[in-house]
Every structure is written in C-alpha cells, then in structure tokens.
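Exam revision sheet. Question 4 asks you to relate a sequence to its structure. Input first:
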Amino acid sequence: MMVVAVVLTLPTMAIAATDQEVIKGTFSIRFPQVKITNIEKTGVSGIYQVETTSGELLYVSSDAKFIFTGDLLNIAGDATVNVSENYRSDKRVDALKALKDEDLVVYPAKEEKGEVLVFTDTSCGYCRKFHTEISQMNELGITVKYVAWPRYGLQSPAGQTMVNVWCSNDREAAMSKAKSNEPVSAPAGKVCEQNTIQDQINLGHQIGVRGTPAVFALDGRQLGGYMKAGQLAQQLGIE
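Answer key, structure tokens:
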C-alpha cells in the first residue's frame, strides 16, 4: 500500500503548475499574439508583473483570471512611487546608452549641463513645436539628440523623409528643413541605408515609446513629451 500511495501522489506533484506557468499558459490560449519576456512578483500579494516583447507592462493575478493595465503606484510612504516607471527606467538605461552619436541627429550645447534623447517624427506637430525650442535649450546648456521614430513606420512618408535626413551630409540642417515642412531629398548618387531608422523604431517600442516627441534623460526617466526649454531645464535640475 505504501508503494501504491507513493505512485499515486507523484503525478499530482508533477502537474502542479507554478503561478508563472499558469499565467504563461493562459496567455498562450487567450492572447497567443502577446509574447511574454518576463514575469516577476510585485509588492502586492498575488499580483505579478508581466512584461511583453513590445515593452508593455501588465499586472496579472496569480490564477490569471484578472489583468490590470496602467502603472502600479506605491502610496505606502510619504511620496507616491511609480513602481512601473521605476522598472522601465532601469531597463532603459543600457538601451539608451547603447545609442551612438553617429547614428543620431545631435544639437550640442556649447557649455553642456545636461543631455536628452528625443524620439521624434518629422510629421508630428508637437515635434515641430519642440524643435523651435532647441536653440534656447542649447543656450541653457542642454544637448538634444534626436532618435528616429516615425509613428507610422519606416515606409510611411515621414519614415522615408527621416531616412533622407539621416542620409544627409548635414543632418542638423536637413532635420530643421523637415521640421519646417520643407522637402528633404536624398543626396544625389547616394544610396541611403534604412536599417538604422528601423533599429531605432524597434528600440522605441522596446522601451515603451507610445507617441512623439518622447523625451528621455540618460538615467532612463521619461521626462514627458513637448515642453518649453525652461520646463526641460527644470526637469533636469538645471538652473
């Protein structure tokens, strides 16, 4: 009888699924198009943070019967802590540091006090408005580095304009023309590669860019979208 008892209990132990397995199994059935890259516990009992390949964060009950969207806030202390944004910021740091100036459009400050990376689209109204603030941002000591993020993809009109901007011998001038709604053509006789733009589009999705302009500090914080030069300086702690 003892042997029988052991044999009967082994299958029960083998089929006991962990919470993570339950969540993965449920997503594979209900949301097969959503690919999960990471699942980890949160500070809330019975709630897991699920990260997808698009960079989106979801919060899921341990039995996978409930899904919450939006940011998780910790209000236990004196200050409200955005747990989700802190996680995203930590993940962004290495990705943003991997960007090289030679692959960006850079407007350097003469006496640099701060630096921002801005995911931009030449057809975006608020991106154009942001661009009018760059000279003042530079005067305040802020270097602005543009990352390509045409909202409708590489093959959209804006995407192809940005390919031409990045291909230009003077990217800064070409970008200013594009942001003024002037046509920017590819340099004569030059074949413009498009992989850099696509890589930056992919990076934007990975770190959670949802619209443009998307302004990031080097520590991974998303500072916001369109803002005036003085507002950006304040965000960076520049007086």
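Marking note for examiners. The first strand starts at residue 36 and ends at 41.
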